[in-house]
Amino acid sequence: MSRTPPHPTRDQIELPMVLDCLGDPTRLAIVCNLARHDQAATELRCGDFNALSGKSNLAYHFAKLREAGLVQTRIVGTTRYMKLRRGDLDARFPGLMDAIITSAARDADRPQFPECEVVEAG
Amino acid sequence: MSRTPPHPTRDQIELPMVLDCLGDPTRLAIVCNLARHDQAATELRCGDFNALSGKSNLAYHFAKLREAGLVQTRIVGTTRYMKLRRGDLDARFPGLMDAIITSAARDADRPQFPECEVVEAG
Predict the structure, then answer these.
(1) Which of B19, B61, B100 to mutate to test the interface with A (most CBs of A within 10 A)?
(2) pLDDT tens per residue across span B31-53
(3) Residues in CB range of B5: below 8 A, 6 or more apart
(4) CA–CA dist B117, B96 (Å, integer)
(5) Taking a C-beta distance cutoff of 8 angstroms, is the pair A13, B106 a contact?
(6) What is B3-26 written as a DSSP string?
(7) What is the pLDDT at residue B56?
(8) Contact flag A112-B23 (C-beta cutoff 8 Å)
(9) Which residue of B has its CA nearest to A110?
(10) Alpha-carbon Rg of chain A, whole angstroms?
């Protein structure tokens, strides 16, 4: 059984909050990784991002992403599963996520982007 | 005669810094107004934005926009003239500014966006 922490509805997702949230390089890297896995309709586990930052730091970033409406989170036991809210984001801000993810991928070798080795869920 | 404060080069403009900068509703409103006037290739004066916020607060926002590479500023006497760096931004992040400006325009009636009555330069 899974439980779901509070999320903003599609209409409650606000542009400044989304931009502010993605202004952090760690959160931008998390979103780019989720976007890459989104095409396979896979959820990622919070533990898949352990290479990016410390655990408590990551928990803070995951909460910020959820509160801004960027990710959908469900909790099973002690594990958090996350998915990018691609449909909601594309409906609210057409073309925005595509432009951000493409630009981030082009700049992925810059020092501002933390390396992220995502471990596939087993 | 005009003088020019320091600006990042096109290549020094970084995605997280641009997103972080536009995560502030006042700076987002300034950029949307500059974009609207950009089509007429007009520069706006800092005083044109006085309806948005207090003077010292605006000076802080203008500096943040310049440092992030979003605006080109030149100073003539005590007046700052600003232009959106549309060419540089479109070259670095294709489609990003369009998506942000279109989304902001769609959401312009939301309380998160400060009303901005831009006074045309005489």
Answers:
(1) B19
(2) 999 998 876 667 888 888 888 88
(3) B66, B73, B75
(4) 25
(5) no
(6) B------GGG--HHHHHHHHTSHH
(7) 82
(8) no
(9) B14
(10) 14
**Distance in Å from the first CA to the final CA of chain A:** 19
The pTM of the whole model exceeds 0.95? no
* Residue B85 banded pLDDT, cuts 50, 70, 90: very high
Distance CA A86, CA B112 (A): 22
pLDDT at A84 over 90: yes
Residue with tokens 């030149």, as numbered in its chain: B74
* Sign of the Cα pseudo-torsion (B16, B92, A101, A94, in order): positive
Which of B94, B98, B107 is opposite residue A15, by nearest beta carbon? B107
In this predicted structure, what is the pLDDT of residue A121? 42
**Closest approach of A33 to chain B, Cα-based (Å):** 16
The closest of B76, B23, B74, B28 to B49, measured between CA atoms, is B28
**Does the predicted interface ipTM exceed a cut of 0.85?**
yes
Q: Where are the extended beta strands (E) located within chain A? A: 44-45, 71-76, 79-84
Maximum Cα–Cα distance across chain B: 41
Confidence of residue A41 (pLDDT cuts 50, 70, 90): low
Strand order from edge to edge, sheet including B71-76? B44-45, B79-84, B71-76
pLDDT value, residue A45: 85
